[in-house]
Design a protein that fits this description.
Blueprint: E1 4-13, E2 23-31, E3 36-41, H1 45-51, H2 57-71, H3 82-89, E4 97-99, E5 103-107, H4 110-121
Antiparallel strand pairs: 1-2, 1-4, 1-5, 2-3
Length: 123
Amino acid sequence: MTRLVFQYAVLRAVPRVERGEFANVGVLLYCQDADVLQARVHVDADRLRALHPDADVASLQELLAGVERVCAGEGPAGGSGLGQRFRWLTSPRSTVLQTGAAHSGFTADPVAELDRLFAALVR
């Protein structure tokens, strides 16, 4: 069985940046050897509003859709390589959508690994 190196990062919604509280809303996964860069996203509006009652869920969902488009190679960032897009998506930001630290591991199936991470860290 081939074991491939992959990297992943958790996408976090931070409705009040000054408080630093967040809810996990997605996972990015990059595997160079399998030519994979994908995101799984889900916004739990109730969880987000527990952090901030006036959280703008619709705007957050638009931002996450933008992340999915970048992963798919769309838009201005779409012309760059997968690794470059992953690094751009995981670069530090002080906005309502942030990423946690990038982590790495080994997997035989990057897409199944993304599904597993998503279930464990977001759902």
